[in-house]
Amino acid sequence: MKYKKTVFLKNGKKCLIRNATGSDSESVYNNFNLTHGQTDFLLSYPDENSFDIEQEREFLVRKEDSDREIELCAVFGDRIVGTAGIEEVGKKYKVRHRAEFGVSVEEDYWGLGIGRALVMAGIECARQAEYLQLELEVVRENLRAFELYRSIGFCEYGYNPKGFCSRNTGWQGLVLMRMELL
Ligand SMILES: CC(C)(COP(=O)(O)OP(=O)(O)OC[C@H]1O[C@@H](n2cnc3c(N)ncnc32)[C@H](O)[C@@H]1OP(=O)(O)O)[C@@H](O)C(=O)NCCC(=O)NCCS
Description:
single chain; 182 residues; alpha+beta; eight-stranded mixed sheet; 8 strands; globular
């Protein structure tokens, strides 16, 4: 999928939210490794990145060509400082209406409104792809993300007390959230 929108951040500066393309592969790869090392609230650690830069490029090309999935990036100045993705739960008729969402922003740029802009863009893309439900999982202690999702309209529908096992802190409970896109 393709997407492009300029938003104004809380500091008055512009940020471009657009779909990442194959030529962004190195920046997206570096952003992934950086953000996944800055927080313990994401699914994986930087050393678990299963892509190299070429595989990242192929992944981004597939996303751009897809009707149902997208990898978004937030460009601030000339730098990719955050990414977000929409992925289908499955192609079978019974689950075709469901998509999963994920987002991360580089820590130096938190609090400016970039996370919110990426979530809003993700919702817009999910609607465009005709999903009826957007889903995510968030670590219970991740109040910044939980508040962001709640304020946008995601509702809590379940809790997995042993959802993640952190290398640093042990069990992390996952709050399951969903939003209907009617
Ligand atoms: C979660 C994350 C994407 C938010 O990005 P961000 O750019 O800082 O988000 P924004 O500036 O748009 O907004 C943050 C919102 O979080 C909430 N928030 C901010 N600081 C908070 C705090 N200390 N406590 C609770 N909520 C807080 C507010 O609702 C705020 O929205 P508002 O100020 O517009 O009302 C970012 O912190 C991040 O990448 N974290 C690490 C990865 C991660 O946790 N991803 C989500 C996995 S489910």
